[in-house]
UniProtKB/TrEMBL annotation:
Record protein name field: Helix-turn-helix transcriptional regulator
Record domain HTH cro/C1-type: where: 22-76
Superkingdom of this protein's organism: Bacteria
Coiled coil: none
Gene3D superfamilies documented for this protein: lambda repressor-like DNA-binding domains
A Pfam family per the record: HTH_31
Biological source species: Micromonospora sicca
Length: 425
């Protein structure tokens, strides 16, 4: 990754494009250089220089180039997912130092730390920070949410980038968001339902969650995923003989609960009148029954809150965004305990890599993994070839274990951390 630093404070750090990336995207879109140049408000010569790696675009130009060839800016530059620095986060959305500092100055934390373009530049370069509060983790921790909002990424991603950028500094302390219980409105909405309506709302929410998981798995497998506005419309019924069409998945769920009968329509519409679901109809072509009317149902935000309130579901809040789930912490501990040799590559696969491994992304267009572990090549005796790959902690992964093992120990006592003392000391 080549850095080109502008001489002016308002000229942001630029990076050369991945060789061939812009040209490949342009040709896939069926565009000429002149057409890309026109879309990005650049000269055709500039586009040529960018494609040949002879010139590095500044963030605003990179953003226009990416839009011109229908891709994300980070798909054109050489930043590996899970390795982002603070400068990378700013660069990926096309902000200059001056504009980023101007936005930060509007926040309470930015005012407290007196953030300027010069201070932000020093922060990104790992230079000593001068001024009150910069050496206080509780104070710098309050700067993370405004940075996350400006850069359009999760708070934990800013923390990870901060710790990569400034490995010798104390980690900023992320203040926890208190766990809130269900709102009074949600409790009252649930209380207003009879038992049958509660069963229906609960099953609709479970089917919505199941569909959401299916869409998530499709993204991981790089399969096409329809817009959420479409897949959240859950098929409820087909207006045709069940002997020809069978039952929808939601009908099967209700049948197992013993509440699928001729009164189903009245029950669902009662939920709709309360604003808990939305009922729609369209016409589909069924392979057996031909054209039939399909009834779909979508749970609303109010309906989801009411169902969680009544079924004792935890409220979805970002309590401690820098911490891993119990499952992911257990995976990280396995890798940490295998140090320094590392964990054999075949001992770790699937979903954990999309949350922890360098080079992975949680979903198409979603935030990258945290980059806490990476596959490291192990040479055969004599160094003649790579014998295998092993999972090891990255520098950030090791620091994450050191910084947060005590917190994890209290939160997840079931995870056996015996043996981590050598890393933590």
């Amino acid at each position: 990754m080549t850095n080109v630093v502008g001489a002016d404070m308002n000229a942001p750090t630029a990076r050369r494009l991945v060789p061939g990336a812009l040209a490949a995207r342009r040709m896939t879109s069926g565009l000429s250089r002149r057409e890309v140049a026109a879309r990005a408000s650049l000269s055709a010569r500039k586009v040529f220089l960018y494609e040949e790696g002879l010139l590095a675009p500044a963030p605003p130009k990179l953003e226009r180039l990416a839009e011109a060839v229908s891709c994300r800016p980070d798909e054109l530059i050489d930043i590996e997912p899970g390795q982002e620095t603070l400068a990378d986060l700013r660069f990926l959305i096309g902000l200059t130092l001056a504009r980023a500092s101007e936005l930060l100055e509007a926040s309470h934390a930015g005012q407290e730390l007196r953030v300027s373009a010069e201070a932000l530049s020093a922060l990104e370069c790992g230079e000593p920070m001068v001024g009150r509060g910069w050496d206080e983790p509780l104070v710098t921790g309050r700067l993370l949410p405004p940075l996350a909002k400006i850069y359009g990424v999760p708070t934990r991603m800013v923390l990870d980038a901060w710790m990569r950028t400034r490995p010798a500094d104390p980690a900023p302390v992320v203040e926890s968001v208190g766990r809130g219980g269900p709102s009074r409105a949600a409790i009252e909405a649930w209380a207003s339902l009879n038992e049958r309506q509660r069963v229906y709302l609960g099953e609709i929410m479970r089917d919505d969650r199941m569909t959401e998981t299916e869409m998530w798995m499709r993204r991981l497998q790089r399969l096409p995923v329809p817009p959420a506005a479409e897949w959240r419309q859950l098929p409820l019924a087909l207006k045709a003989a069940s002997s020809e069409t069978g039952y929808t998945r939601l009908q099967e769920r209700l049948r197992r609960r013993g509440v699928h009968d001729p009164g189903a329509g009245r029950t669902v519409h009662a939920l709709a009148r309360r604003g808990l679901v939305i009922v729609t109809e369209d016409v589909i072509d069924h392979p057996v029954a031909g054209e039939v009317v399909r009834v779909a149902v979508k749970i609303t935000r109010r309906g989801r809150a009411a169902a969680r309130a009544g079924l004792d579901k935890p409220v979805e809040v970002d309590q401690e965004p820098h911490l891993l789930s119990e499952w992911l912490w257990g995976v990280l501990v396995r890798v940490a305990l295998a140090e320094p040799e590392g964990l054999p590559e075949d001992r770790l696969a699937g979903r954990p890599l999309f949350f922890l491994g360098v080079g992975y992304r949680n979903a198409a267009g979603g935030p990258p993994s945290r980059g806490l572990i990476e596959a490291v090549p192990v040479l055969a005796p004599g160094g003649t070839h790579v014998a295998e790959f092993r999972w090891r902690l990255t520098d950030l992964g090791r620091r994450h274990v050191v910084e947060f093992t005590g917190i994890y120990g209290q939160r997840y006592p079931r995870v056996d951390c015996t043996g981590l003392e050598s890393l933590v000391v």
